[in-house]
């Protein structure tokens, strides 16, 4: 039966330099994924370049430095990568969910970009993070929930990229601005102190001439 199946199975062939998506090892085996819905977990990561072919059905892949796994994959774990022509930010390599726990071991230096990704049930805000002491090749997209320790950097990013701020943030900033504007207008109609305004003779209880 296996021999018959092998004879009729046709694997996709790749060349050195081709970009592929790599299937993530079962994310349910990771401690960081406990309690999560497996249907919402990331199945493939990439794009990653092929270094060379190994044998007839395996390929060596150029992996990011934070991956502590073997770099040779069976062709069944790979699929051809198709670039997103509408949003180039989606073409950046992303970190698999099972590796997100390592974020705590690094220190974020800057937030470089922002994107919104969607799953079947919700949308997620992700940020391209430059890690201190790491090269630009090790920049990673992280969900905002994984950047709680670096929220000042996230806020600074939105402050310097006001046109890209999300509608909810714009609304909140507008409300704050209106509140401040109201206070300023009210302050402008009031004297700076009691000495700046002299009471009228009537108010002071003096006889009018």
TrEMBL record:
UniProt-annotated stretches for the region Disordered: 183-209
InterPro entries to which the protein is assigned, alphabetical: Chromo-like_dom_sf (IPR016197), Chromo/chromo_shadow_dom (IPR000953), Chromo_domain (IPR023780), SH3_Tf2-1 (IPR056924)
Domain Chromo: 106-169
Compositionally skewed regions (Polar residues) per UniProt: 187-209
Protein name as catalogued: Chromo domain-containing protein
């Amino acid at each position: 039966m296996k021999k018959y199946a092998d004879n009729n199975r046709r694997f996709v062939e790749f060349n050195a330099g081709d970009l592929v998506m790599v299937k993530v090892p079962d994310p349910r085996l990771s401690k960081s994924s406990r309690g999560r819905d497996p249907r919402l977990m990331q199945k493939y990561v990439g794009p990653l370049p092929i270094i060379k072919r190994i044998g007839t059905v395996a390929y060596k892949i150029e992996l990011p430095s934070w991956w502590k796994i073997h770099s040779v994959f069976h062709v069944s774990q790979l699929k051809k990568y198709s670039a997103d022509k509408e949003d180039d930010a989606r073409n950046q390599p992303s970190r698999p969910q099972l590796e997100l726990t390592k974020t705590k071991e690094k220190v974020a230096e800057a937030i470089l970009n922002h994107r919104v990704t969607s799953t079947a049930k919700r949308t997620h805000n992700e940020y391209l993070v430059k890690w201190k002491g790491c090269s630009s090749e090790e920049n990673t997209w992280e969900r905002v929930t994984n950047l709680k320790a670096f929220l000042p950097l996230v806020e600074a990013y939105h402050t310097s990229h006001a046109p890209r701020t999300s509608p909810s943030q714009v609304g909140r900033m507008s409300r704050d601005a209106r509140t401040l504007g109201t206070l300023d207008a009210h302050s402008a109609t009031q004297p700076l102190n009691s000495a700046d305004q002299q009471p009228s003779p009537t108010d002071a209880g003096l006889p009018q001439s």
